[in-house]
Design a protein that fits this description.
By secondary structure, the protein is of the alpha/beta class. It has ten helices and eight strands. Helix 1 links the parallel strand 3 and strand 4.
């Protein structure tokens, strides 16, 4: 079954001369989603469908993706955390659970460390340092669906790709339409350079670490180490799943997220 992200007109907030597009749906406690390097709001379509209802879901297009403005100069993890804070403040959310994948998981950690408005964290395919993650294989030229589809060999396991060809077609089309061009992708990647979460014991938010054992983009053992270092973390590991584990194992991942947030 194909999952289609929402296509309604998104509100905007301006920060430092940059327009950021976001969308909110559902009601209840706010859950903010942060996508991976170069990816737009489509990235969380599988989770949006499951969580928008019991929770208020906020998705956004980081700088250089979707209709959001391109980055001006190099980006840092602090930039992303401040952008997320601006989106949530504009929406009127005083506190939020934060869900991130890859770079987005690191943004969630940065946000939790720097802002007092983070509640629970869901860290998908993340790591405690930027040098543990190499997102370069994810890049494809904007508008090139074939190239976008080819990058999925690095993000999704071979078993999933063989069984879910229609999903790959959908994702390739969304990536070609909404993801970052080369310049914006490289500027997002620059946020990983030299970034470190710092002493993990200082981040005492309840956290759920989700990772796939077949992730070829994040250093082996990074998820296990992240869960071990955070004082209030639990881990859900999915054998044979790739970097986009939230796509491959959307039902059990959604169940894990809902159970974790509802505790």
């Amino acid at each position: 079954m194909r999952v289609h992200p929402p296509r309604r007109r998104m509100p905007t907030v301006e920060r430092d001369g940059v327009e950021l597009y976001y969308e909110a749906a559902g009601s209840g406690e706010t859950v903010a989603f942060v996508p991976d390097v170069g990816c737009g709001a489509w990235f969380w379509g599988w989770q949006h469908a499951a969580l928008a209802g019991p929770y208020e879901v906020v998705v956004w297009n980081p700088r250089g993706t979707g209709e959001s403005s391109k980055p001006r100069g190099e980006l840092s993890m602090r930039t992303f955390a401040n952008d997320l804070d601006a989106v949530l403040a504009d929406h009127g959310a005083s506190a939020s659970h934060v869900v991130g994948c890859g770079l987005g998981a690191m943004v969630a950690l940065e946000y939790a460390r720097r802002k007092g408005r983070a509640r629970k964290l869901v860290l998908v395919s993340g790591a405690a340092s930027g040098d543990a993650y190499d997102p370069e294989p994810l890049f494809a030229p904007l508008g090139d669906e074939r190239a976008c589809r080819e990058t999925l060999s690095h993000a999704l396991s071979a078993g999933f790709r063989d069984a879910q060809s229609d999903v790959l077609d959908d994702v390739a089309a969304w990536r070609a339409a909404e993801d970052a061009d080369r310049e914006s992708f490289e500027r997002q990647c620059a946020a990983l350079d030299g970034w470190d979460a710092g002493p993990l014991y200082e981040i005492d938010n309840p956290a759920l670490v989700v990772d796939g054992d077949a992730d070829v983009l994040v250093e082996s053992g990074a998820g296990e180490a992240l869960a071990a270092g955070l004082p209030r973390a639990e881990r859900e590991a999915f054998p044979d799943a790739g970097h986009f584990v939230h796509v491959e194992r959307s039902r059990p991942v959604n169940d894990a997220i809902l159970g974790f947030l509802g505790d």
